Amino acid sequence: LGLALYAGSLCAASGAAFLYHDYCVIGAGPSGLQAAYFLQRAGRDYVVFERSHAPGSFFALYPRHRKLISINKQYTGKSNGEFNLRHDWNSLLSHDRRLLFRRYSRDFFPSADAMVRYLEDFASMLKLHVQYNTAIVHVTLERDEQAWNGHYFLLTDQDKQNYKCSSLLVATGTWVPNVVNFPGSEYVEGYETVSINPEDFAGQTVLILGRGNSAFETAENILGVTNFIHMVSRSRVRLSWATHYVGDLRAINNGLLDTYQLKSLDGLLEGDLEDLAIVKDKKGKLHITLRFYLENRNTSAGINSITLPQDELDNFATRAPYDRVIRCLGWKFDFSIYNRSLKMMPGKGDKKKYPQIKPSYESRGTRGLFVLGTASHSVDFRKSAGGFIHGFRYTTRAVHRLLENRHHGVPWPSTAYPITQLTNSIIKRVNEASGLYQMFSVLTDIILLRENATAFEYLEEYPVGVLAELETQTGRKAPSGLFVVIMEYGRNFSGADKDVFYYNRAVGEAQHAWQSNFLHPVIYYYKRLPTEHEMRLRPPDWPLPRPDAVHHIVEDFLTDWTAPNAHILPLRRFLENCLSTDLRNFFAESCFLFAFTRQKLPPFCQQGYVRMQGLVGSEGLRRHAIEASLLEDYTLTDFSGSRPPDSHEESQDQLLRDHAIPVRPLQHLVNAKDE
């Protein structure tokens, strides 16, 4: 009977109508809305499924104490919108300046309620195609050689409505609470349900399981009313200012570190949570013991029959009973809705809470299935900001560009420049680009050399992990070599055990730029595109394989890499050495002289002066060049008693009539100083 019913349900399902879309997005959180924005701007057929009645449902509940730890910097001293996004960790990318988060909150650490309002406006003002109150409960594949990826994705919602898509974008985030099962875990309260009223903890002794921001957020809320708080986790506390990873403990929540180190009763412990056990006594107090003490014991006989650690070690750290135990262990990805045919497998080790994906954010098991947002953080876990809005807004854009090239023949956006603009282009990007800055070591700018290094093509924010696939992923060719521009911290500067405030921690001289510790630009040069084999064999902790040449721009206290001698000049000389050319800028008279004295003109003269391009001369510009010792002054000031000319044109005429321009040696005419 069961087989018959199952077969009947399959027949009914196969006969049900499918609503088709080219792209299906699951989840209307920040990453889902960001993907929808790019799809809509490109005019694609898409739909976003959201199980709640409004976007951003995660932020309607979390963080429980309603304060975000993503910064919302109102002022930077600059009006450059791209630069300001470096210090705006909440805004999504759009063309509408009304949808900048600073218009929703002025708090440096804003309320989660402001994020909920922001996401609602983002969806409604941009008229994104979001289908609310639609919970996708099952996803499977249907093989079809005519489909984009050789199969369609079949989705079923809670009302048994079926949908068919060519590409699936999973933007559900990580929302399933991490739970550790051990004897007595039924007495543990979860972060998702525990009271947020401090008065409920007055005079109580509390144990918190976990040591991330949610654990410290919970502790901070009750710090002033409890007897004491203990925190236990399997690893030591990691401070974000030491690891340079924004997912580690932030200063806004670390008040308990003060009370611990200043001996005000609170404390931190390390231990494997799965080895713990909790026993409840007749008074309702919770005692911490170890699992092996409970093995082969009759726990129903009461606590008096159970050996506690303090029975053998009278100074056992957690010998005092607790009133409450709170679990704050974070979240994991929900794998339950995906059929085996999709091969959605969890990662390994610390990444097991995320699905396995490639550096292109595509599932390792299924072509055409991309994971966006927090759930895609396995690509840069504990390295960069890909698990947070200020990181995945850029990786989502990168995925969209990959899809545009794959399915619609739209190459990765690029801009072509003459080679004379190479130095300026790099300096401009490293000083204002927010994607490079936030997704350091993950997203890169690619410079493809063209026409015997007389021109180049500039591609922005390409995923470094798929550099070997650049030609197929972008629709751009790299026949003549390339530069890769990336932002990096120093190799040995970040870590939970690092002292990042040690004396002489900063490098200030250009010749020692390779020893820079703080975030700084690094330029890699390759004579040919690296292969997949070379990418796999790259040195540990290197984002790229060994290049033919590499240049570090020295770190800067102001993150302003515009100093002529410390930043620009060493970069220009590095580029010149790689290309065997002269990238300096020249005045017209120098180009004029080179035309008579050299067999080959510098690129600036070839592409500017010879083509009658460049700045139009004026008296003000000439005088400025003379005062800066960039040009010789050939104008004679002795007018032999005659009236000074009224204009620049009259002065030129009078010089030609009455005075001979003195002859100077040719070397005095050559002026190749940098602009």
From TrEMBL:
Its BP terms in the Gene Ontology are: ERAD pathway
Required cofactor(s):
FAD
Any keyword Endoplasmic reticulum?
Answer: yes
Q: Which GO terms describe its cellular component?
A: endoplasmic reticulum lumen
Look up the domain of life of the source.
Eukaryota
Gene3D superfamilies, sorted = FAD/NAD(P)-binding domain
Q: What are the record keywords, sorted?
A: Endoplasmic reticulum, FAD, Flavoprotein, Glycoprotein, Oxidoreductase, Signal
Q: Which Pfam families match?
A: Pyr_redox_3
Q: Which molecular-function annotations from GO does this UniProt entry contain?
A: flavin adenine dinucleotide binding; monooxygenase activity
As recorded in UniProt, coiled-coil segments are none
InterPro entries recorded for this chain?
Auxin_biosynth/cation_transpt, FAD/NAD-bd_sf
Q: Does the keyword Oxidoreductase apply?
A: yes
Task: Please describe what this protein does.
Answer: Probable flavoprotein which may function in endoplasmic reticulum associated degradation (ERAD). May bind non-native proteins in the endoplasmic reticulum and target them to the ubiquitination machinery for subsequent degradation.
Q: Spell out the family assignment given in the record's similarity comment.
A: Belongs to the FOXRED2 family.
Assembly mode: Interacts with SEL1L. May interact with OS9 and DNAJC10. Interacts with TXNDC16.
Q: Report the PANTHER family cross-referenced here.
A: FAD-DEPENDENT OXIDOREDUCTASE DOMAIN-CONTAINING PROTEIN 2 (PTHR43539:SF23), FLAVIN-BINDING MONOOXYGENASE-LIKE PROTEIN (AFU_ORTHOLOGUE AFUA_4G09220) (PTHR43539)
Write the protein's name. FAD-dependent oxidoreductase domain-containing protein 2
Specify the species: Zapornia atra (Henderson crake)
